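Help!! Second protein's tokens look totally different from the first
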Amino acid sequence: MTEQTTITRQITLDSQEEMVALLGQRDAYLRMVRETLDVGLFARGDTLHIEGSEQAVDQAERVYHQLRKILRHNQQLTVQDIRTVVEIVRIGGSADTKAVGRLNSAEGGRFLRPRTDGQARYISLMRENEIVVCVGPAGTGKTYLAVAMAVTQLRQGNIKRIVLVRPAVEAGERLGYLPGDLQAKINPYLRPLFDALNDMMEPDQVKRYVENEVIEIAPLAYMRGRTINQAFMILDEGQNTTVAQMKMFLTRMGHGSKIIVTGDMTQVDLPPTIRSGLADAVARLRGIDGLGIMHLDETDIVRHPLVQSIVKAYDGEGASRRRV
């Protein structure tokens, strides 16, 4: 038997406070990672030292990348955060991907699999919660995976309808000024959702489902006053809702329904004086049982490799302007 080579790597943290949060009370979080992944872990100053086989050390680095991301956005970690991230990373590279979110949403019994640890955690949150708010840049799969989860739930009989909603504000146009009936007016705004559906179903089936109202498409304004039961509801481009619109949409939820809200806070098209309903929801709803908040970033981008570089370039420009 070939003896495995032991390697050592270090992660330099931003502060002692970050170290304390990652270690947990009486190092409880550190022990969970160490025992599950079979690595040596110890803290010295602001540096976390990892020792073990190359595979185990790689997994531990991925775990701490995800945990630092969660901590950055939530200001705290929970035992469930540690368990979920460790399990996602530990099983994510194996043949059995059920635990990390394999979705039976494609035609012919094919499965969609998360391509990053962040995507896997996103799918896990969608399974575990009635409402999930996902924020991330273009190309991270936040909308595509939500549609995949909706189709999976429909095929499994867990829901009876899929409801796709988008605010029609991208071009500053009002629906009434666009030609055609309601369907024709909102199709341009819902095109990304249709593209995802057509990847997972035959176009004729999508058309039948729309005609039979198994799949419903609607502009956000048309959701007012409704209660929707046994449905998977997706609000895309949530950054372009107002606070009142976001509250209205989230309270449409009926029995047996699930809501996913997606958006990118770098692409807000609202007037500068109007607060984004997505930003407000992320700040206001944190910590509610049954409601998960997910932050994807440029490391989760799965489009063309250039997209990740483009996102970083624009994020860097925004940071520079904010400092001026």
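Here's the second one for comparison:
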Amino acid sequence: MHPREQTIFALSSGRPPTAIAIVRVSGARAGHALERLAGHRPAPRVATRALLRDAQNEAIDDAVVLWFPAPRSATGEDVAEFHVHGGRAVLAALFAALSAFDDVRPAEPGEFTRRAFENGKIDLTEAEALDDLIHADTDRQRRQALRQLRGLLGDRARDWRRRIIEAAALVEAGIDFADEGDVPEELMVPALARIAALKDEIEQALAASAHGERLRDGLVVAIAGVPNVGKSTLMNALARRDVAIVSPHAGTTRDVIEVQLDLDGYPVTLIDTAGIRETSDPVEQEGVRRAKARAGEADLVLWLTEGGSLDEPDAGGLPDVAPRWLVRNKLDLDPVSEAEKRPGTLAAGRRLPGGGIAAAEGTAGRVFAISAARGDGVSDLIAAIRTYAEDYFAAAESGLIGRTRHRELLRKAASMLQCSIDAAGQGEELVAEELRAASFALGRLLGRVDVEDVLDVIFRDFCIGK
């Protein structure tokens, strides 16, 4: 029997030991397995207590079982659930009993969700949203994934595709039935009007969701600067734990260190980079190269200097892409430096208890004065990063797009719609062909046409049992 036709089973709850564990079985043999283990097949969707026994009539566990006949189940197939005590020995015995049945095997990661997709229970955007929901680390990520799971993008994409097909029908009617009296002589004008309105809607959705993918992955904030200015100390202070080695020797950090933060529900990936300087050490040279590359990909760069240093963020030769904030560190060692007195920098800030200075506007954008070792000003810096994340993700939370794949296919659909408008003077056949390409792009977005090449990539990251 082909693997996709076999019945699958997996633990669908937390790692044992747990109070209760849920084992799900899906496929044509699910009902047979349920009858053999529980002694009967209960009424559909009714939790029923049963003593589970294996093929040798040995008791496995006193459990609760449920039966979901196809197609009214999560996967669209026959599904049985066993709610057992969550000890490792109980689960091992139940797995052994299930494996003893012909054409019943353990599930691969994401196989339950893939079967739900293949049986039309969910579309591909909802499958991706389920994966995002499983892996959500912050409340904002959870809410975005839940909206996608409830059809935020899928419903809009289905509506757009329907309207493209309707516009294509008008164009093709003009091609195929132009000589029939009940077909309007001029169908291109209303078709083009529909196409233009639809293209504008998709482009507006793209513009409004500019940072949607970043909410899924997290805002990237890089700490950069010359060696030995306290980057690793600041990393540990922001993370509130020791994640980076702190040493008085320059060049201690050789590679990029990352840590994930949750700032009031906003995901932030904090990066500690190697000190940026000229060096003859080949290992440190590679660290500097990686530091510059990673900082160039960041959404925000914190350029760290010592309190009295005149070093500015452009001194490191970083790519000029992300905003940069100047963070003057070690004010506990030099609390009133000459740099603070310079017009246009920290002179505008107010002094904080303990010697720190609040943020001010300077030549490098926002300017902060802190002591990473003592903690002065660090809370203000965290608050500023949190506000920056809130502003950055302001439109993302209500946006449609959560993945790069979504954006690329919507851009392609909008481009094909524009091509269909441009082709209007060249013949209805060309317009119809461009509309078919736009419809195909939205079909790929939903997973309804030609998506075999992306399915393995999408479902391989799922956990087993989902």
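Reply: Different proteins will give different token patterns, so don't panic. The CA atoms of residues 152 and 302 lie 35 Å apart.
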